Amino acid sequence: MNENQEEINNDELYEHHKFTASEGQEPLRVDKFLMNFIENSTRNKIQQAVKAGNVLVNEKVVKSNYKIKANDTVRVVLAHPPHENLLIAEDIPIDIIYEDEEVMVVNKSAGMVVHPGHGNYTGTLVNGLIHHIENLPKNSNERPGLVHRIDKDTSGLLVVAKTEYAMANLASQFYNRTTDRLYLALVWGNVEDDEGTIEGNIGRSLKNRLQMDVFPDGDFGKHAVTHYKVIERFSYVTLVQCKLETGRTHQIRAHFKYIGHTLFNDERYGGDRILKGTTFTKYKQFVDNCFKVLPRQALHAKTLGFEHPITKKQMSFNSEIPEDMQLVIEKWRNYTVNQKE
User: Fold this and answer.
1) What SS3 class is residue 108?
2) Labelling 131: which of 102, 137, 312, 340 has CA 20 to 30 A away?
3) Could you tell me the residue ranges of all domains in the chain?
4) Exposed (0-12), middle (13-18) or buried (19+): which is 140, by Cβ within 10 Å?
5) In sequence order, what are the residues at sequence separation of 6 or more whose Cβ sits closer than 8 angstroms to the Cβ of residue 331?
6) What is the CATH number of domain 5-79?
7) Measured in Å, how far apart are the chain's first and last C-alpha atoms?
8) Residue 190, helix vs strand vs coil
9) What are the b/e assignments for 72-103, b being 16+ CB within 10 Å?
10) Is the pTM of this model over 0.85?
């Protein structure tokens, strides 16, 4: 046994995080490794957890200077259950587009987290859903009502299952890719082709745990396909419609960065700085104003279609582009017109 490892005792502990180092993992201190993996955490907090014996590598307690290697399994265990398991019903306004006995379709605003997780234990859509509906069925991750999810700063449509049967039926539709999902995205650069398809496995970035990366070759990541069509061109940015064939985490964000067209103002993927355009001060001020109007990635889940679990009728829903994104599109439209005059 490595001198930096010792056997874990048998007291009941709850798993809060679990990560497996990738094949390409270079030796890295466990505290630094966890810093890349755990959102909203600090080096000090992680080192305190290590010191308390709450960090295990391959089921052995380790010290901070233990070096993570390829395929190591790292777990953070604590004496209390994860906060996200202690769900609290909250009277949160939810924009309900449609509701019957089996399903509900909601229009999520940007900034709302879909389900509780590290750093976001209240104020989420799930907290609001369990206040609105009693006894929501849980998905395979123990999350009430959720069949799919969209990112915190993405706006748009989500379907919620209200019964066990609806949960199983809708989950099957998403798995079999029979649902229809169209997104609108504003991306940096002039997208060359009027329409196209982006393919490439998506998995956690080997460099930054908070990002997803595209792995075009090999077995790493999960198969992902995004079809796109250009809606409008605005000199240095392009408005595109995206049709998801698969539903991977950050799929549109990662795929468009991969082809060199990062989403406008997508902080996590580097779209919150000027990636295309001129060096004029006036242009920089214009882009900064756009960032202020739309303080998030320019992505909206506009339409959603699925077969109703009971009636088998094809359901289709459409949502308006939210005001912040609409204003920025208008700003770019005016900028492009003025440029040509």
Assistant:
1) strand
2) 312
3) 5-79, 87-175, 180-340
4) exposed
5) 286, 289, 290, 293
6) 3.10.290.10
7) 73
8) coil
9) bebbbbeeeebbbeebeeeebebeebeeeebb
10) no
> What totals of helices (H) and strands (E) does the chain contain, helices first?
7, 18
Residue 206's Cα: distance from chain center in Å?
Answer: 17
**Structure tokens that stand for 317 in this block:** 């829903």
**Span 287-319, pLDDT tens digits:** 999 999 999 999 999 999 999 999 999 999 999
More confident residue, 79 or 244: 244
Residues 6+ apart with CB under 8 A from 97: 105, 106, 107, 157, 317, 319
Same fold, 87-175 and 180-340: yes
Query: To which residue do tokens 């299952």 refer?
Result: 161
Q: Which residues are catalytic?
A: 151
CA-based nearest residue to 335, from 292, 282, 297: 282
- The H or E element containing residue 164 is helix 164-175
